[in-house]
Structures are given as structure tokens and as C-alpha cells.
Amino acid sequence: DVKVTQSSRYLVKRTGEKVFLECVQDMDHENMFWYRQDPGLGLRLIYFSYDVKMKEKGDIPEGYSVSREKKERFSLILESASTNQTSMYLCASSLPPLGTGGNQPQHFGDGTRLSIL
Amino acid sequence: GNSVTQMEGPVTLSEEAFLTINCTYTATGYPSLFWYVQYPGEGLQLLLKATKADDKGSNKGFEATYRKETTSFHLEKGSVQVSDSAVYFCALRANTGGFKTIFGAGTRLFVKA
User: Is the CB of A106 less than 8 angstroms away from the CB of B46?
Assistant: First the structure.
């Protein structure tokens, strides 16, 4: 089974701090994703990476950056944390779409519940 | 663009009741369709999938059929259990234009004993 591991389940940080959220997957997946999940807003894509050192902005990249130096690890960085970044953060990985078939599901970690005070 | 619409919750049912959660989609081409489930305090897990028209995905007593003519992928279960209480997400992944998965807003299900 695919294992996606997020480094922390709960994290409390202060406004203005630089925050690192780490995600590691063990199945050699090319694609990795960071989402945030907020009540009433569903999952929103922050950034994704389709291969090592490659990254693409998602729907809400402002205030975030990412790093993918190794295939198995995808880090989300909050450059200067603000209270509106208090949320549940979910990391996911997947194989790329197969040719003309997009049938690869995403595999999720358990999430990091981040509170910014 | 691609989108997924699913019924708003919460849905509250008694144990052994029949469950339907509606999901419709808009997409170009031939997307793959998924249902994910999120139990309290956890990430999302793949529940079932279907990759082409008329495919039926099934798992743990849940079923959904890929209906291209109605652009729908409704989730059903004949007899729900308390342990099925969770949030259910319908999703699609297109076969053109990139790597994203588009998720619905999620439907929370409560099952009472």
C-alpha cells in the first residue's frame, strides 16, 4: 500500500514565523500535491509538482511556496505565517495520467492541523 | 472548465437505510471518476473509481456507475452502518490538460444507531 506521511498531525505557530510542512511518500510517485481544507470550502489546491524540481501553482498559491528536491519529499512553506492560514493541510501523491487515461487516484496523508496564533 | 457538483449535506440516516449521494460533473473528453471518503481526523481515502462510461466501481458495499449520458456518478449503498459516518467526496481526473484532480465540496453523512 502507498504510504504518504506528513511530519506533524498538529502544529501551533505564531504570526510572522516561517513554517515548514513536510510530506514523504514511499511509492515512487511522480506527482505530489498540497491542499488546504476548510469548512464549507472543500479542498483547495495550493501547489503541485509533477516531477522532481518541478512545481506549478494551484488555485490559492499566495503566501505559500514549495520545494521538491527529491522525488519522495514535497515541502510546503509558509513564508510569513498569518492567522488566515490556520487550516487543515493535506498532502497527496499519485502516478501521472496513463497516456490518454487519467485514471490514477491520489493517495493522501492524514493531514496537518495548523494553528497560527 | 472541469467541475464536480455533489449534493449538500449533512445527510442523516438510520442504520440499515439506503444511501444515495448525488454527483454530477462537467468535463471535456473522457475523465476518470472517483469517490473518496474521509473519516474524522484522517486524510481522504479512495473508496472506488470508474474509468470509462458504464463502468461500475464498487467497494465495501458502496457502488457508483459512470453515466456519460447524464454526466453523473451517484454513490449508493444498500444498508449503511454507523461506521460509514464520514465525509464523501466525488472527484474527477481529466485525461487531457494536466495532472489535477477536481473535487466536489464533500457530503457529510451521519448514521444513527
Answer: yes
HSE-up of A71 (CA within 13 Å, CB side)? 8
The alpha carbon of B66 is separated from its chain's Cα centroid by a whole number of angstroms, namely 11
Residue A9: how many CA atoms within 13 Å on its side-chain side?
Answer: 4
For residue B3, is pLDDT > 60?
yes
- The 10s digit of each residue's pLDDT in A31-49 is 999 999 998 888 999 999 9
**Which triple of cell numbers denotes residue A28?**
515512487
- Map grid coordinates 461500475 to a residue: B56
Q: Cβ–Cβ of B94/A102 closer than 8 Å?
A: yes
Please list every residue in chain A whose beta carbon sits closer than 8 Å to the beta carbon of residue B95: 97, 100-103
* CB burial of residue B11 (10 Å; 0-12, 13-18, 19+): middle
The H or E element spanning position A75 is: strand A73-78
Amino acid at site A82: S
Nearest to A89 by CA among A50, A54, A116: A116
